[in-house]
Amino acid sequence: MGRPRQVLDEEILEAARTCFIEHGSSVSTETIASRLGVSGPALLKRFGSKRELLKAAFAVGVAPPWLPMVEEGPDERDISVQLRELALTIDAFFRKMVPAFSVLREAGLTPEEIRGDSDDSPAARAQDSMAGWFKRAQERGLLREGDPSLMAGLLMAGVQYRYFLAHITQQRVPTEEEDPFVERLLNMLWRGMAPERAS
Q1: 17 and 97 in contact (C-beta within 8 Å)?
Q2: Which of 16, 169, 153, 189 lies closest to 102 in space, CA to CA?
Q3: Which of 9, 11, 23, 103 is the most buried (most CB within 10 A)?
Q4: Dihedral sign, CA of 150, 131, 73, 185?
Q5: How many CB atoms lie within 10 A of CB 116?
């Protein structure tokens, strides 16, 4: 008899994400396990329960992967290039998360579960970190004076809103190639935050 197949956590999470999106939160662990060639109990042994697997698959209560980019910047490159990079990275993150919204709502996750164990929720940390990014840019004269929290909020809300709207209306969000929404958003925001000499 051969040894059981060893799978990495990321393989499990990728398969779980796919199955949850395809079948909803009620999908069985056996369905997920069969996609990986392992047993359902093996998945539960690794993650404890299907609910914990669901939360891990969609990184519930975890800081978004783009946060280090915000916390480390801005760097020495042109600030408008960095703004574009940030906006497109955040946009790609929310595009990937749109299908998760329905699954998480169907699963009945509580606000406490979504926020995570920390007193500093991922959403609050993201907003604070983004405000810090804008403040550092202002201190270096790369952006005009103004409320960095407001600038951060405008960028974050501008990028996110169409994904939440798509979730509510069950509509598809066009890609940037089909409709350069992020570029248009940044062009509008840049008029209000560019340093005086560049405006």
Answers
A1: no
A2: 169
A3: 103
A4: negative
A5: 18
Query: 77 by DSSP, 3-state: which?
Result: coil
The 10 Å CB-count burial string (b at 16+, else e) for 147-183 is ebeebbebbbebbeebbeebbeeeeebeeeeeeebbe
Cβ-Cβ contacts under 8 Å for 67 (sequence gap 6 or more): 125, 126, 129
**57 close to 13: Cβ distance less than 8 angstroms:** yes
Are the C-beta atoms of 51 and 107 separated by less than 8 Å? Answer: yes
195: Cβ contacts below 8 Å, ≥ 6 apart: 141, 142, 143, 144
pLDDT in tens, 165-191: 887 888 888 999 999 999 999 999 999
